[in-house]
Design brief:
Radius of gyration: 14 Å
Largest sheet: 5 strands, parallel
Strand order of the largest sheet: 2-1-3-4-5
Shape: globular
Helix content: 25-40%
Distance between the termini: 9 Å
Structural class: alpha/beta
Number of helices: 4
Amino acid sequence: MNHYIYSIMPVSSDEDYYEKRAGLSSAAEEFNLSVHFPLDRGLPETGKEFDLARVVSELKQAALVIADLSLERPSCYYELGLAQALGAQVALIARSGTNIHQAFGRNSVSEFRNLQEYPSVVRRILLDARLEA
């Protein structure tokens, strides 16, 4: 098994993206995990199709998928649906007060109140996930 977390989270629409990204990466390092941020591999060039086969492969290989549903982005729900349909181990996270739409496990979302709390909530998710070394 690859030891990485596949991150599903809003990017350009989230003013807190870089702080969340840093908090997620920092917490993951404590568990000897890296974080796969899909957009780090570049956006598809204009006119190219979304590479579903690549996303499916990356989701299947991830030790854990963490889906941040804070801004109710349809693209995040789409990727979450893929991960859940593939049987990936998934953890949901969202800012307190976020309306969680149709998603399996919607009653077990780990909530954070602010960016200072975000890394500790991620650490708790990683402890609860009991990832194999």
